[in-house]
C-alpha cells in the first residue's frame, strides 16, 4: 500500500469521529466539544497510518510516542478547562451568523471542517513512517533528534503556558489583570507558539525519512495559529474586553518569544 492510499484511508476515520461528536453536540447544544476532539484526531490518524504502513521502525515509533503525549495532554486540558461551561464565544459568534438551522450546518461548518484540517495537517505523521532516510532504513539520525528537541521546546511552552494560566486565573487577586508572567512574559501566546514547535518538530522527523512533501502540514498549522483561528481570532476583541491588554501588546511579542520591551 503506497503513501497516498494510506493517507486517503485516514480521512474517513476522522470524519466518522467528527460526525459522532456532532451527534453528541446536538444533545448538549454546544459545538465547543469539538475542541476536545481536535488533538485525539491526530492520534487516530497516526495510529491508522502506522497500522497500514509496512513497518513503523524506530522513527515511526518515536513519532507515535510524541504525538500521543502531546495529544492526550492537550485533550485532557481542554476538556477539564471547558467542563461545566457554556459554549465558547467563538462558537456563539459562528452560531449567530448561521442561524437558522445552525444545528445541521454545524456538521460541516465546524465538525467535518476540523476533521479535514486535521487530516491535512497530519502529513508529517505519515511521512515519519517512511522507511528510507539519511540515517539508513528506519534508523534515527541527527535530524530525528533535532525534531524531538524542537517538539520538546514546543511541549514545554504549550503545557507550561497552560499550567501557568490556570494558576493565574485561580487566584481571585488576579481578576481583571493580564497574565504577563512566566512564559507569558516572553510571548502573548506561548501555547500557540508551543503548538507551532510541536508540528515543526514532527516535520523534522518526516524530513529525516525523506518525506519533504509533508511540509504542507506544519505550514497549514502555522497559518491557522498565526492568521486564522489562533492569535488573530483571539485578539480580535480582547482589547475591548480588557483595557490593560493594550499595554501588554506594546511590551510583548505576539507569537515568537523574546524579552519584553521597556
Describe the structure.
- This protein is mainly alpha-helical.
- It has one domain.
- The chain contains 12 helices and no strands.
Structural class: mainly alpha
Please bin the fraction of helical residues. 55-70%
What Rg do the Cα atoms give? 19 Å
Annotation, overall tally of beta strands = 0
Largest sheet features: none
The stretches of 5 or more residues where confidence is low (pLDDT under 50) are 132-136
Instruction: Report mean pLDDT, rounded to a whole number.
Output: 92
List the helices and strands and how they pair.
Elements: H1 3-28, H2 34-52, H3 57-82, H4 89-97, H5 102-121, H6 123-127, H7 142-170, H8 190-208, H9 216-228, H10 231-234, H11 238-241, H12 245-251
Helix pairs in contact: 1-2, 1-5, 2-3, 2-5, 3-7, 7-8, 8-9
Short description:
The protein has 262 residues and is mainly α. Helix content is 69%, strand content 0%.
Summary keywords:
single chain; 262 residues; mainly alpha; 69% helix
Amino acid at each position: 500500500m503506497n503513501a497516498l492510499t494510506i493517507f486517503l484511508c485516514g480521512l474517513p476515520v476522522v470524519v466518522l469521529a467528527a460526525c459522532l461528536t456532532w451527534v453528541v453536540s446536538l444533545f448538549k447544544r454546544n459545538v465547543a466539544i469539538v475542541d476536545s476532539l481536535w488533538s485525539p484526531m491526530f492520534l487516530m490518524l497516526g495510529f491508522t497510518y502506522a497500522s497500514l504502513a509496512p513497518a513503523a521502525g524506530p522513527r515511526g515509533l518515536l513519532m507515535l510516542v510524541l504525538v500521543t503525549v502531546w495529544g492526550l495532554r492537550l485533550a485532557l486540558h481542554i476538556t477539564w478547562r471547558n467542563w461545566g461551561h457554556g459554549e465558547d464565544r467563538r462558537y456563539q459568534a459562528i452560531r449567530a451568523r448561521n442561524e437558522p438551522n445552525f444545528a445541521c450546518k454545524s456538521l460541516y461548518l465546524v465538525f467535518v471542517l476540523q476533521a479535514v484540517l486535521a487530516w491535512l495537517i497530519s502529513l508529517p505523521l505519515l511521512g515519519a513512517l517512511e522507511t528510507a532516510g539519511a540515517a539508513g532504513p528506519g534508523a534515527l539520525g541527527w535530524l530525528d533528534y533535532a525534531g524531538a528537541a524542537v517538539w520538546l521546546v514546543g511541549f514545554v511552552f504549550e503545557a507550561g503556558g497552560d499550567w501557568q494560566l490556570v494558576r493565574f486565573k485561580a487566584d481571585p487577586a488576579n481578576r481583571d489583570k493580564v497574565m504577563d508572567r512566566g512564559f507569558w512574559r516572553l510571548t502573548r501566546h506561548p501555547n500557540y507558539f508551543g503548538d507551532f514547535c510541536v508540528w515543526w518538530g514532527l516535520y523534522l522527523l518526516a524530513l529525516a525519512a525523506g518525506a519533504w512533501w509533508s511540509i504542507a502540514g506544519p505550514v497549514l498549522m502555522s497559518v491557522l495559529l498565526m492568521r486564522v483561528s489562533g492569535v488573530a481570532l483571539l485578539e480580535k476583541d480582547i482589547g475591548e474586553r480588557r483595557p490593560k491588554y493594550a499595554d501588554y501588546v506594546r511590551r510583548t511579542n505576539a507569537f515568537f518569544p523574546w524579552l519584553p520591551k521597556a
